[in-house]
TrEMBL record:
Pfam families: LuxC
One function term, GO molecular function aspect: acyl-CoA dehydrogenase activity
Organism of derivation: Pseudotamlana carrageenivorans
Protein name as catalogued: Acyl-CoA reductase
Domain of life: Bacteria
Any GO BP: bioluminescence
Keyword presence, Zinc: no
């Protein structure tokens, strides 16, 4: 299979996903194989939410729209332009996926297939309905993919390289278990935001997207805030208030109630607004419905702290504070060339 044939297949997949990316699902008769796959995928979206209460239709639609927007000819060509992808001897690449947000392992899946390798997928039990169906669609639009995509629920065996994502504990297990194979091992990371006190109302509204999208369960979600000494949080709370309907979701509300009770019983100082809490804490990872914050007095010292914690940080959200920052509101819409943990998976796949 030629590279352009693989690219064309994923562009068609993007067209298929675009039908499901708005609140009102709209069938596009031009999309290939809709007669076979359209109604079935609507059912898979329903099953995904029934199986995992965090996967609301809104969050699934958001994920699908992100991938539909990414899978265009222009984006894929821009992504692949720096690489030489030819004369690839296909290898079997195992992907062990997380299940914290919908289709969280799709970029690895895409990267393996687009570089000409075969993929062996072990999904999380939390996210098992969407990707197999989309893989079947890929095999219909490009039959040469048949035999290149395998899913397993058992032990991962007979592979040449592996990309594995998990917690800090499972990452240590992965490193031991896969020590004799080329590998990318990912563990827990969190994202942080830096405020200066000069943010606009729109900046803070956009920051709310970075905090609340997917209920804060993604590694690209902001879980820690750095604010200047003396910062008052009035503008922050006003900026995030439009997300208050999130408390109507039972799983989120249960976490909010539980964590609030823990903080109150422990007599921790915290601020809250009826659906969200902020607490001064040095940790990077905060519980659901909670954001940790820390004061800073000196930009240079804060940059040094962030550098020291680089291996624990996925994204830094700010406006003109540091290089490689991400604008407010953009953490959950990464480009194809924005690699998790800043590890170039395409480069890795071309070297195995």
């Amino acid at each position: 299979m030629q590279l352009q044939e693989r690219i064309n297949a994923f562009i068609k997949l993007g067209d298929f996903l675009r039908q499901f990316s708005n609140e009102v699902i709209q069938k596009n008769d031009i999309v290939e194989h809709n007669d076979i796959f359209f109604d079935g995928f609507k059912h898979q979206l329903k099953l995904a939410e029934e199986h995992n209460g965090w996967f609301t239709q809104e969050n699934i639609r958001f994920a699908l729209k992100s991938w539909a927007d990414a899978l265009t000819l222009e984006n894929i060509n821009t992504w692949l332009k720096p690489y030489t992808i030819k004369n690839i001897t296909p290898k079997q690449v195992a992907i062990i996926m997380a299940g914290n947000i919908p289709l969280v392992g799709f970029h690895d899946f895409l990267a393996v297939l687009i570089t000409g390798h075969h993929v062996l997928v072990k999904q999380s039990s939390n996210d098992k309905h969407l990707l197999p169906y989309l893989a079947k669609y890929l095999e219909y639009v490009e039959p040469q993919f048949k035999g290149c995509i395998t899913f397993t629920e058992g032990k991962v065996e007979n592979f040449d390289a592996v990309i594995a994502t998990g917690s800090n504990n499972t990452a240590r297990y992965f490193e031991y278990y896969f020590k004799n194979k080329p590998s990318i091992i990912r563990n827990n990371r969190n994202s942080v935001a830096i405020l200066t006190g000069e943010e606009t109302e729109d900046d803070l509204k956009n920051l709310a997207e970075d905090i609340f999208r997917y209920y804060g369960l993604g590694c690209r979600n902001v879980s820690k805030l750095y604010v200047p000494k003396g910062y008052t949080f009035d503008a922050f709370f006003e900026g995030i208030y439009h997300w208050h309907p999130i408390i109507e979701k039972a799983k989120y509300a249960n976490n909010y109630d539980y964590n609030k009770a823990v903080y109150l019983m422990s007599e921790f100082d915290m601020l809250e607004n009826g659906f969200f809490m902020i607490k001064e804490d040095e940790s990077l990872a905060s519980p659901i419905a909670t954001l940790f914050y820390e004061y800073y007095e000196n930009k240079t010292l804060l940059e040094e702290k962030l550098k020291a914690n680089k291996q624990q940080i996925q994204c830094i959200v700010s406006n003109g504070f540091t290089k490689n920052e991400i604008p407010f509101g953009a953490t959950q819409t990464p480009q194809l060339w924005d690699y998790a943990d800043d590890v170039d998976s395409v480069e890795f796949l071309l070297a195995i």
